[in-house]
Batch of 2 targets.
Target 1
Amino acid sequence: MHIVVCVKQVPDSREIRIDPNTNTLVRQGVPAIVNYYDLHGLEEALRFKDEMGAEVTVVSMGPPSADKALKQCISMGADRAVLVSDRAFAGADTLATSYVVGMTVKKVAEEFGPVDVVFCGKQTLDGDTGQVGPGVACRLDYEQLTYVEKVVELSDKDKTITVHRHLEDGIEVVKTKLPVVVTVLTELNKPRRASLPGVINASRFKPVVWTTNDFADIDRAKIGLKGSPTIVSKTWVPEPRKIDTKMLEGDNVAVVASELIEQLWSTELPTRLGW
Amino acid sequence: MVEGGITVAEEQNVNQKAAEPKGASRVQPVPEQDFSDYLGIMVVVEQRAGVAKKVSWQLLGEAKRMATKINAPVYALVMGHNVRHLAEEAIRRGADKVYMSDSPVLEKYRTRPYSRVSLDVIRTFKPEIVLMGATYTGRDLAGAIATHLPTGLTADCTQLDVDENRLLQASRPAFSEKMLATILCKQYKPQMATARPGVFLELPADASRSGEIIDVPSPMREEEVVTEVLDFLEQTDRINLEDHEIIVAGGKGLGSPDGFKLLQELADALGGVVGASRAVVDLKWIDHDHQVGQTGSTVRSKLYFAIGISGAVQHVVGMQNSDVIVAINRDPDAPIFKVAHYGIVGDLYEIVPAIIKAVKEKRALPFATNSSAANASVAASIQS
């Protein structure tokens, strides 16, 4: 069993703030982290390494500094890590990204053995699109299972996988044949901390780095900005709807509370809500 | 929400794209294909067991609005088994023409058979815009279709428009929803987007509308499909915020996950449900089903309480279309007050119990809590 985990190094967008005076992003001091959904994919792969001796290869597309993210994956227990890095990949939208990641998984299969499962996070923190996972499945012509919150069974013998997919109003139990791309939710598991042998491995770790030149049949029209059909035409901080806010004040909270209730009951709300 | 805030030119290349190196060419490729005969706006109708997701009709309403601007037809694509009633409903909801693939192989959603039908229809009938709900299923299918075509896809839009050049302006939250970005797909067709449930307005069903239903065969046979849906475990206790008219939402100002118990008490007194800001969901104070503004829960409630929520953009875009908004915050300068109809400055742990008491008196509700089931449900989803 060979499992590939796709990870992305992202700015921790939870830490990004908007400067209220200039309406611009404050990026200073924002740490680069491994997209945390991806770590749940890695943990699931490592579970199958522990349980059935699966081999775990981590791949990432990003700048050279993303080797730090891969180092973290090695310290958690991944067997190898590949960094796909080239200025020509920059500016990629989800379509161009899925092309390169798909090519990478194909090359991983050629060099390190056939791939059975590809785990991706359900989406990235910086993009929030969730489109690269399904895109990679298409590129590889693998089955796709998205928004997975539990892997019920992974069978090396039958080459099948059964999962719980999270939907709006319930859980779908789905079974399919390997190879498969699985995108995962955080409910799946709790990512482990680095182990001591893992940290030692990571300290010596140098990722395998592939550039465009390492892909013999890559179509340069499909990568980077050139291969990206979408463009961002503008970004802005939306102005809130203008509202005439009525501030409620009083000598004590009971007065304020009953004032609020009087106000609410003077609207159409009681009729519309059946109070 | 109002467009026209400050445009941040240096942050253009965001969100769907990795950072662009300085000086890189911004030239877009000229695709070999000619897209000039692509016409019309298509909505992919999502259904399970013959029941359509509301977002499908909301998107048809929005498609109709945009189509009127550019004088284009509105199409619906309905896939499933025994779904003719949905094709008819799509016409009543604004579609001029419905492509319907009705086949046992499409009874339950599976990526491959659904994407094969969608690709056949899009390639044959050539809509210039294709819209789908940003639901779990919608995003699964859209990602597959856009890659196969290939074309550009914008995820999880909260605003859609079309300009005089028939370009779809797909706007979506970016940077943990702190900003909005408008994304274009200039040189490929169709232009594709998934859009959030609860943002757009559906048209009332109009029985006098007429339209054509075109049968489309499913290209896949059951024996070619390797994915099997074994079971569906319905979770009736799961909160779907967009279905509720009263939401009592809490944020970091609660100070701890326990604060949600107080909010649940207020929600029970009002007949509502508990919501939460992204910040506290990220802190795992409460299950992400309660998050306002996340995919699937942009809310248009009739009454919205924002308690201990400062009012960051990502929250405001998710709730500001509510009819009546009440904000309670310790900080008189909290931005949430700008979008609230009623504001109260002070300690929520004093104010909220007073409001609960006043509501119960007004509604003549018993004071001993009679809603242990609801309490248990929120307690289960509060992560300690």
Note: Chain A has two domains: 2-222, 240-275.
Target 2
Amino acid sequence: MRKNILQYLEDSAARLPEKTAFSDGKENISFGELGRASRAIGSYLAARGIRREAVAVFMDKHPRTLAAFFGAIYAGCFYVCIDSAMPEERIKTILNNVGARVIISDAKNYKKAAALGAEWLLEYDDIAQTDIDEALLVSIRARQIDTDPIYVVFTSGSTGVPKGVVACHRSVIDYTEALCEALEFSEDTVFGNQTPLYFDAPLKEIMPTLKYGATTYFIPKSLFMFPVKLVEYLNTHRINTICWVVSALTQISALGAFEVCRPEHLRLVAFGSEVFPEKDYKLWRENIPEATFYNLYGPTEATGMSCYWCADRELSEGESIPIGKPFNNTDVFLLDESGKESDEGEICIRGTCITMGYYKNPEKTAEVFVQNPLNGAYGELIYRTGDIGRRNEYGELVFVTRKDSQIKHMGHRIELGEIEASALKCRNVRKSCCVYDAEHKRIALSTREMPRRRS
Amino acid sequence: MEKLIEILQELHDDVDFYAEQGLVDDGVLDSLDIVAIVTEIDSEFGVRIPPEEIIPENFNSAEALWALISKLDEV
């Protein structure tokens, strides 16, 4: 039975050991190498008694980084991805929350990682080539179950403290199977990944790549500034599938790149996390008529994406792009303010996709991972998204707005309250207020400072 | 040139745009900045930067950007 996400990797590594699994355009890792390095890292960690705990991975976005993730899982641990662009304060809060004793780092981030004071600081190159203890890995696997955690992903928290969403094998397997069924990926899929590894968003590319023995390119972030170069990259690597945040897609359309070039191999364009401006959506559809377009929707708390809409009909003018219907084995319903099911209300999700809540944060967990109010008979957890949705005339779900002051900026989920709380930590700042200027896509922070003391 | 510096300062008021030569290479600008700069140059100078000119070399410094605007304005 499939109880562990590593089985996807093992199957593909046995079938296609030489094939490139992940690449950044310069360096590649094959399925065989990825499996071997992951097992070496897993053996190394486990031999040192590091089990059932957080392993922080502080590396640049690189094909090797995945071997560190999977190495942690081989050891029976879960990974927490740290990005060098995160403010140090945030990194410390995260590491403290998960109680990470171990950090795996690369040469480039080693110095920064060393300043964080973990018990074990391991450099990737030192542990990825070590011996594999097959017997040890087998004994760990024998005791692993599908509700063991795989990763903790941190999202913005309104009180200034980020919340760590804990996901297990079972919800990620469920997501992988449902996503692949709906979007019809295959061994020939070549993904062009845009989203950073410290979210659950890249599971869209990583998991189907493992499942089918497909290939994912990590597109360098700097290319997203220069649309023509970005399209050239897609063409060079014959990328046929992209799942990007809308602001990455509009970078190509709004800056006029379609006038001089087009992504020739694209057959599937999935987008989400933000509103797609009508003009840009139209430009994409017109310029790549051979591609199928999907709008995806879902909170990290329900593992990756929960709903999808296939753009198989024309939208009327001013009509919002629907989020469609839930993936297989996921159910979505709308609760109105009185707690009854309705055609407009809070989007609630139930299913195996529901994650295990927020790490060491039972209060916040209990607020949104709740007993299904429609079920008074037995224990059934649902996740209340805080998003308001409605059903349109086709019965499709449509995102309407947020219940609170959470925003989406360049695909990132941000609580304006977290920014306000962070500003208040600065010396002299007495009051702070944060608003989102949607027209210019800017976050504006206003602070009032303490009156200066007279000397 | 001063008008251009003003546009850039609007985006990053902590950068010395007269001196900085690595706006792209040093990671000062991000993708939203590029969109904002292209849009602002269009509305302030009436100059449309064609997609093939949106490349790192033209955005690394205010000077390079100004040279691009001047070149495009002549055509």
Note: DSSP finds four helices and no strands in chain B.
